[in-house]
Amino acid sequence: MEWMWFLVGLLAGGGGVWAVLAHRLGTCSRERAQAQRDAALQRAASMVLEASEARLRHLIDVVPAAFFLTNLHGECLLVNQHWRVLTGLPDEVSIGHGWIAAIHPEDLPRVTSGMGDPSRAGQPFEDTYRVQRPDGAVSWVRTHAVPLADADGTLNGYAGFSVDITALIEAHEAIKTLRGLIPICASCKKIRDDGGYWNQLEQYLSTHTDAQFSHGLCPSCLESAFSDEES
Questions:
Q1: Residue 104 pLDDT > 90, yes or no?
Q2: If we measure between CA atoms, which residue out of 168, 166, 191, 165 comes closest to residue 178?
Q3: Could you tell me which of 127, 117, 123 has the C-alpha nearest to residue 148?
Q4: CA distance 49 to 55
Q5: What residue ranges in the chain does DSSP mark as E strands?
Q6: Cα–Cα distance, 189 to 186 (Å, whole number)
Q7: Among 11-20, 29-38, 116-125, whose mean pLDDT is lowest?
Q8: Whole-angstrom Cα distance, residue 177 to residue 131?
Q9: Which pTM was predicted?
């Protein structure tokens, strides 16, 4: 006996829409129809998987931070668009151990020991360090990474993200400068800057802070000014 077989399935679409997949297997024997049905199911499953991977890739790319995925050996498996912008490295360079090229040489030993230390396996990783682009530009990042495990609890890598905190670090450095020892003339009250030049107090503060000044006379100076004119 020959059979007319159809394979009907549902595929998830964007926005919660479902599409019906109907595949005619033709008129054939039961065994052949079974084989064609299995092949069609595999193709349908492959289509669903590809669609899911494309959606996951899109979600990762729009994360407002540099996302990365590694295995337990510290080899990078996946990065997103923000990582490419932050580091200046394309995927083919970052994958594997190529991501190391993005870490500032002075911070590299600490970062690699933290991510690759077997004694820390299964523990979250957090650190602040510098990222250096191929053009020499340096950025400060704060990185958070969490361990990933299979369904049976076996650890298989880390997923993490790095946030650019350069502006925060620079602002903190500026605040520390004003909190430190400021050389000021005891007579004219000018302040010496890092270049050795003496600046008026308001000029120095305007350069190192967002403060703005309006000029006037205090009561004592006002009285002194009028006394001088009368005399």
A1: yes
A2: 191
A3: 123
A4: 10
A5: 3-12, 18-28, 66-70, 76-79, 125-132, 138-149, 155-164, 191-192, 198-199
A6: 6
A7: 11-20
A8: 24
A9: 0.57
